[in-house]
Design a protein that fits this description.
globular, binds zinc ion
């Protein structure tokens, strides 16, 4: 059965249809030309965050951070390494809790960094505190729905 994934562009919020294959890693957004899996998770605004959560068919991980947070800075390079490993099966994005306080409050964020795994519009798992790339990859894979593994 020819199955397609719906992947949201972190730059413009456009929804793209992609084959569920490794080759999707190089795919570009049909709307704005941005690479969908660049290996550098984008900071998204509240609107694009909502697009990711509600319209993606693949699991989405969001790293909630702030510029003044030391452990967040330590986690940033590990998060990029994890993105290279996990994409295009999973989409990784970032949310600056200072810029998006309403979203952060809605998610009930009490400490940062916090990572939340979403799938099908619902929260699947959540973890807080600095992590290495290996720990992030393992945490995501441990909570992935069977259908995408
Ligand atoms: Zn785009």
């Amino acid at each position: 059965m020819a199955q397609q994934n719906l992947v949201v562009c972190s730059k413009c919020g456009g929804v793209n249809r992609l084959p569920p294959a490794r080759s999707a890693k190089n795919a570009k957004c049909g709307k704005c030309g941005n690479r969908l899996f660049s290996g550098h998770p984008e900071d998204v605004n509240g609107r694009i965050f909502d697009d990711h959560i509600t319209r993606s068919s693949i699991p989405v991980v969001v790293d909630i951070w702030a510029p003044w947070c030391g452990p967040c800075k330590m986690t940033a390079p590990a998060y990029e390494t994890a993105a290279n490993e996990l994409e295009p099966d999973v989409c990784l994005i970032k949310l600056n809790s200072d810029n998006e306080q309403a979203v952060s409050a809605r998610l009930g964020i009490r400490s940062i960094p916090t990572m939340i795994l979403f799938h099908g519009g619902r929260e699947v798992a959540r973890t807080s505190g600095a992590m290495t790339a290996g720990q992030i990859v393992r945490w995501v894979r441990d909570h992935l729905p069977m259908a995408t593994a």
